[in-house]
């Protein structure tokens, strides 16, 4: 993805964003027509009044007396036109909203869909928030722009041009006077508005500072109390609140200056038009009606100019957001499904990893020439330091990403030739974060196999000896797990994930163990369930506990993207290498002498 | 409505100067707006018509006209500036006042307040609620000048001709009515739309957060459907709001134009009869073209009142919470304070005397708990999850008061010491390590005065000296949320050093070594049993009688074995006490010990 961090997009950039955007959202073309009609309706309705005043004053109310009939006819025509503009405005406005919402809906859903198709390599922890923002806040920025900014662009620019055109028809000399008095406003306005933008950006930083410190005072409340840090904390909180206040007042400076400034410019323009118009108007052929109309027209010039200045900044932000969304849509999908699929055999599956390299699109190589063969039904533990590549290997086996070179064969079939459906039925990965959806336990387990019944769920729990555990929860199977499953402990979330995997009955099970602490009681339940789940399947565990390695048939020791040692636990300990060192330090720290390997305490 | 006024009065009383100036500016603005239309009308009659249709005007009267337009325009500009600046000042000051009050309250209420509410809710009180509660103050000054504007406008029209005033009397209430109808009508779809935005963002967060699970389960299609459904709902609500807006907006903005047309027609007739001049008609027409904005502002304020009042209620509920008692600091003072911050020289005795505790509305967590830790003794507190271990720690640390009974440190009840008093004697390392987004140094000292030697000693004792030295700027490296990410074990070691720095008479470790390598953990525990405060002379510490009284909660047998004595907590009371090997006779304890053994190992 190209990175657009700069909020500013220049003219050329804007056009290329528009072209890409049009291609991505064909609905936009319909919108153009409505927008044009709408602009005409609204601007037309506004401009009618000065025109009417001019005509009535010059034709109907003359020095020679009033011709009432003319006035009635003119006013009736004008009223009819105003009513017409109301109806036109009503219809076009709604059509415009509908087009905009259709475009946004399409864009939002397509982007979300595309995000889900991307390989997991794109979904690193650090990028998650950014990707989520693409379908939430970035689209919302576009929405706000569509609701206000885009409409303002059309209507206001049409209004400015139309006002200047009518003025010029009345008197080009007076139009020049108006321009001369408005031109200096433009740079001043731009300057102030850009300063205002900076002030608001700084304010956003201050606001997040305040939130950060207040959040510390809330999340760290126990430390604050336990260490008598209360008064210092108070000073810090007040400090950021005051800093936010100061920045708010800096922003208020521009807020209270911009509008009056344009107002004063507008008034000076009116004063000069009146002065010049009365003094030289006779010579320029200006009538009294035209001059009064000029005064009204001047009022119609100031507000669109101010609006356009504000909209310009909003436009840049919106275009940048649009660009970012389009970039997501342009990111190619790496893990492509096969056109003709080779079926996977049933039962436990053997795994062959042949000369596999893997490198992330951004960032370096993680796996170097991995060659390993795992027999069907074996339990394999993968150990190694964080970042040694053991989790990446696990992901390749579940085809959450494809190797950069080399291949992974499961049941003798290259994973790239296995259909998505087959892969999901026969290969199941249990990720370590134990993420659950915010619904009941039963439903979370049911996700393991879409056609599973409640009976199947109960059977899976029974098979893993988890029935007692579920019954012990507040509402049994109907217990809500909360956001991300956070009402449950890490260990309990894994129990749900195991039951879910059992329901799918895969031939290859890839387990990524949790690194965070699991309370001892749950740990016991977890180990028992794991043992039962693994029976009759090939199991690959990314192990963070050596006890897992101890129990497995084969241990792979990873170091810097390569397999440093492999063999059974006993062999490796006897060999006295890396693994033996790890094992010794663990033993020394946790087991008392005389405790048997099965861990009986007495 | 009345509660809205109460909110305004409260803000007004605290920041009356700024409010008054803002409202004054707004009223001057109202007069200037009407004044400007009068000037335009007069200029039409006195200068424009005679100048272009008549015999011409003198240079002097033309200059006077130009000067008048400019002057009134400048007054109008300055009044806008005054209104905006002072009204903003009053609003922002009110925000600051309320924000400080709310955050002060967070610091001063008892911990049970924090335990009973999610942190996100508290943050919302300090942020969004204060923002929304003050949002009705933003249009306040302008709204307060609408009455003045209406009176001035009506008077100026009456002076010209009663018929003009009549058109205005029909027109403006209609506009107000339309505006109210519109804001009410759009309220429901707007709120639904807002909720849908929240729903969409919830789905996006959940789905992308759990992308790994989504992919392993093959739920992509279902997730996209779920998202598309919510997005379609949002579209429906937005379309509903759009339809209402398209019904009202063109009508609303066209009504003044129709009014002007009526004025022109009536004006032409009256000019014919000779009762008004052309300038009078121009004046009335220009007044009509500027009166829609005040109506909108008034409508905005009415729309904001209920939202603000509800947010204010939430703030008030926080402010109404009773704050924690601050006992007279001198009353419970054990002895004079030492440079390290500890009030006591040497270890002290800790006693729980018939202590019971329950959270408000909950079942008892601890009941009738009696225990005694002798000075300098190392005691392990063991019990199953939910047996009340962490509650006992919270009681000893003075974080919560016992519901019944008494906790005594060095013979003085914690209730008499007060929260601050307890912290001078007891240092607690909590289960969840919390680091502030600040330097290592600030995180360790947390406000007390310490020199680098003391810091170095505490870090060494907690086996944290090694990795701290390797941080980019050592002790000054910013850690925590926006700084360097530390591993769980490193964070725990910093937390232990933080406690040791206080040379506590009583040290409490609540599962504070769970993420630390067992070998390192053993080293740390060994060094804890030696005090770090005094200078070492000939291998013996000076200034202390012995090591601090140490209470440890741990899940590793190696840690538990280090204790002089083990207290086995079951069902909120002490079920057994003694050294580890003796306790193995107790069946429940033995079962727990076996579970701990099996779970052991580096994580």
Number of separate helices of chain A: 20
Q: Provide the CATH top-level class of the largest domain in chain B.
A: Mainly Alpha
Q: Give the terminus-to-terminus CA distance of chain A.
A: 60 Å
Principal-axes shape call of chain B:
elongated
- CATH architectural grouping of the largest domain in chain A: 3-Layer(aba) Sandwich
In spatial order, strands of the major sheet of chain A run 8-9-10-5-11-12
Largest sheet of chain B: 6 strands, mixed
* Gyration radius from CA atoms of chain B, angstroms: 37 Å
Q: Largest chain-chain contact?
A: A-B, 166 and 158 residues
Q: Give the number of DSSP strands of chain B.
A: 12
CA gyration radius of chain A, whole angstroms = 36 Å
Report low-confidence residues of chain A grouped into runs of 5 or more: 1-8, 589-602
CATH topology of the largest domain in chain A: Rossmann fold
Topology (elements, then pairings):
The complex is a heterodimer of chains A (602) and B (603).
Chain A (H helix, E strand, L loop, with lengths): L10 H14 L3 H33 E2 L2 E2 L1 H50 L7 H11 L1 H34 L1 H11 L2 H35 L1 H6 L3 H55 L3 H43 L20 E9 L5 E10 L4 E6 L5 H8 L7 E6 L2 E2 L5 H7 E4 L10 H6 L7 H10 L3 H6 L17 H15 L3 E5 L7 H15 L3 E5 L3 H6 L2 E6 L2 E6 L1 H7 L2 H13 L12
Chain B lengths: L1 H13 L1 H38 L5 H50 L2 H5 L3 H15 L6 H5 L1 H15 L1 H48 L1 H7 L2 H54 L4 H11 L3 H28 L30 E9 L5 E10 L4 E6 L5 H8 L7 E6 L2 E2 H10 L2 E4 L10 H6 L6 H10 L3 H6 L17 H13 L5 E5 L7 H11 L7 E2 L2 E2 L7 E5 L3 H5 L3 E6 L2 E6 L1 H4 L3 H13 L4
Parallel strand pairs in B: 3-10, 3-11, 6-7, 7-10
Antiparallel strand pairs in B: 1-2, 1-4, 4-5, 8-9, 11-12
């Amino acid at each position: 993805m190209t990175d657009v961090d700069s909020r500013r997009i220049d003219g050329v950039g804007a056009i290329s964003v528009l072209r890409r955007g049009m291609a991505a959202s064909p609905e936009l073309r319909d919108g153009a027509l409505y927008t044009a009609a709408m602009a005409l309706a609204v601007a037309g309705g506004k401009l009618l009044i000065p025109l009417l005043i001019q005509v009535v004053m010059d034709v109907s109310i003359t020095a020679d007396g009033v011709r009432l009939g003319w006035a009635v006819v003119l006013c009736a025509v004008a009223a009819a036109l105003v009513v017409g503009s109301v109806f036109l405005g009503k219809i076009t406005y709604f059509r415009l909203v509908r087009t905009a919402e259709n475009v946004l809906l399409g864009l939002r859903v397509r982007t979300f869909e595309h995000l889900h198709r991307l390989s997991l390599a794109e979904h690193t922890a650090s990028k998650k928030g950014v990707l989520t923002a693409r379908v939430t806040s970035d689209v919302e920025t576009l929405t706000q722009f569509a609701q206000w900014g885009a409409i303002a662009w059309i209507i206001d620019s049409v209004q400015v041009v139309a006002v200047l055109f009518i003025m010029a028809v009345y008197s080009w000399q007076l139009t020049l006077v108006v321009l001369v008095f408005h031109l200096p406003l433009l740079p001043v306005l731009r300057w102030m508005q850009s300063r205002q933008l900076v002030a608001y950006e700084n304010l956003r930083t201050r606001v997040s500072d305040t939130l950060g410190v207040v959040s510390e005072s809330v999340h760290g409340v126990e430390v604050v109390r336990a260490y008598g840090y209360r008064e210092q904390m108070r000073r810090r909180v007040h400090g950021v609140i005051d800093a936010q206040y100061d920045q708010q007042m800096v922003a208020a400076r521009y807020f209270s200056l911009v509008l009056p400034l344009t107002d004063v410019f507008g008034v000076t323009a009116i004063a000069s038009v009146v002065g010049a118009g009365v003094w030289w108007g006779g010579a320029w052929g200006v009538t009294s009606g035209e001059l009064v109309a000029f005064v009204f027209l001047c009022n119609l010039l100031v507000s669109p100019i101010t609006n356009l200045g504000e909209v310009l900044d909003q436009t840049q932000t919106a275009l940048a957001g649009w660009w970012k969304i389009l970039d997501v849509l342009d990111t190619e999908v790496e893990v492509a499904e096969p056109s003709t699929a080779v079926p996977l055999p049933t039962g436990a599956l053997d795994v062959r990893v042949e000369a596999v390299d893997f490198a992330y699109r951004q960032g370096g190589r993680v796996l170097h020439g991995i060659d390993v063969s795992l027999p069907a039904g074996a339990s394999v533990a993968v150990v190694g330091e964080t970042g040694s590549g053991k989790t990446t290997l696990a992901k390749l086996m579940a085809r959450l990403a494809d190797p950069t070179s080399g291949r992974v064969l499961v049941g003798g079939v290259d994973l790239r030739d296995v259909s998505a459906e087959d892969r999901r039925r026969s290969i199941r990965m249990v990720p370590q974060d134990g993420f659950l959806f915010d619904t009941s336990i039963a439903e979370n387990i049911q996700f393991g196999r879409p056609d599973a019944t409640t009976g199947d769920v109960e059977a899976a729990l029974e098979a893993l000896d988890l029935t007692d555990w579920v019954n012990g929860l507040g509402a049994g199977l109907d217990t809500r797990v909360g956001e991300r499953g956070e009402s449950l402990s890490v260990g309990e979330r894994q129990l749900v994930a195991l039951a879910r995997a059992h329901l799918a009955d895969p031939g290859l099970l890839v387990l990524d163990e949790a690194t965070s602490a699991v309370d001892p009681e749950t740990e016991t339940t977890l180990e028992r369930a794991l043992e039962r789940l693994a029976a009759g399947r090939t199991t690959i565990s990314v192990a963070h506990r050596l006890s897992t390695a101890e129990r497995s048939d084969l241990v792979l020791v990873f170091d810097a993207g390569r397999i440093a040692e492999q063999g059974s636990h006993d062999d490796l300990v006897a060999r006295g290498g890396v693994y033996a060192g790890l094992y010794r330090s663990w033993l020394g720290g946790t087991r008392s002498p005389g405790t048997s390997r099965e861990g009986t305490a007495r | 409505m009345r509660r809205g006024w109460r909110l305004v009065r409260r803000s007004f009383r605290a920041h009356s100067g700024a409010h008054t100036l803002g409202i004054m500016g707004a009223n001057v603005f109202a007069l200037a707006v009407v004044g400007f239309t009068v000037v335009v009308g007069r200029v039409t009659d006195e200068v424009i018509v005679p100048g272009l249709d008549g015999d011409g005007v003198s240079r002097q009267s033309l200059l006077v006209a130009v000067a008048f337009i400019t002057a009134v325009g400048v007054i109008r500009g300055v009044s806008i500036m005054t209104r905006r600046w002072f009204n903003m000042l009053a609003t922002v000051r009110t925000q600051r006042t309320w924000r400080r009050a709310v955050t002060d309250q967070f610091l001063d209420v008892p911990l049970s307040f924090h335990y009973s509410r999610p942190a996100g809710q508290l943050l919302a009180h300090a942020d969004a609620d204060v923002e929304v509660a003050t949002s009705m103050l933003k249009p306040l000054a302008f709204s307060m000048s609408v009455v003045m504007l209406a009176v001035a406008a009506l008077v100026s029209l009456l002076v010209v001709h009663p018929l003009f005033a009549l058109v205005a009397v029909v027109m403006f209430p209609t506009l107000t009515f339309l505006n109210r109808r519109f804001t009410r009508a759009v309220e429901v779809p707007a709120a639904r739309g807002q909720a849908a935005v929240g729903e969409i963002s919830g789905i996006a967060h959940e789905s992308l957060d759990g992308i790994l699970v989504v992919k392993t389960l093959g739920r992509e299609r279902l997730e996209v459907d779920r998202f598309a459904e919510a997005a379609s709902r949002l579209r429906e609500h937005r379309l509903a709001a759009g339809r209402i807006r398209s019904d009202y907006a063109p009508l609303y903005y066209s009504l003044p134009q129709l009014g002007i047309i009526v004025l022109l027609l009536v004006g032409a007739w009256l000019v014919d009869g000779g009762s008004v001049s052309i300038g009078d008609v121009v004046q009335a027409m220009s007044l009509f073209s500027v009166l829609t904005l005040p109506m909108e502002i008034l409508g905005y304020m009415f729309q904001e009142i209920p939202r603000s009042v509800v947010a204010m209620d939430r703030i008030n509920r926080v402010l109404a919470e009773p704050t924690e008692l601050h006992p007279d600091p001198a009353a419970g003072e054990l002895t004079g304070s030492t440079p390290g911050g500890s009030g006591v020289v040497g270890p002290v005795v800790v006693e729980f005397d018939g202590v019971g505790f329950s959270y408000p509305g909950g079942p008892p967590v601890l009941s009738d708990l009696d225990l005694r830790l002798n000075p300098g003794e190392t005691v392990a507190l063991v019990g199953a999850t939910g047996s009340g271990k962490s509650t006992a720690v919270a009681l000893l640390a003075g974080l919560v008061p016992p519901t019944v009974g008494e906790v005594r440190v060095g013979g003085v009840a914690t209730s008499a010491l007060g929260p601050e008093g307890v912290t001078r004697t007891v240092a607690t390392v909590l289960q969840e390590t919390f680091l502030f987004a600040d330097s290592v140094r600030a995180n360790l000292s947390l406000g007390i005065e310490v020199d680098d030697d003391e810091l170095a000693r505490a870090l060494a004792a907690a086996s944290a000296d090694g990795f701290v030295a390797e941080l980019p700027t050592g002790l000054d490296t910013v850690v925590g949320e926006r700084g360097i990410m530390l591993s769980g074990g490193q964070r725990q070691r910093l937390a232990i050093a933080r406690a040791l720095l206080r040379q506590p008479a009583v040290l409490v470790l609540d599962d504070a070594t769970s993420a630390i390598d067992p070998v390192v953990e053993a080293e740390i525990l060994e060094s804890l049993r030696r005090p770090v405060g005094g200078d070492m002379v000939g291998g013996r510490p000076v200034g202390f009688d012995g090591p601090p009284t140490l209470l440890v909660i741990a899940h590793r047998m190696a840690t538990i074995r280090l204790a002089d004595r083990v207290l086995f907590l079951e069902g909120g009371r002490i079920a057994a006490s003694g050294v580890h090997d003796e306790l193995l006779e107790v069946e429940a304890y033995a079962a727990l010990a076996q579970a701990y053994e099996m779970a052991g190992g580096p994580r």
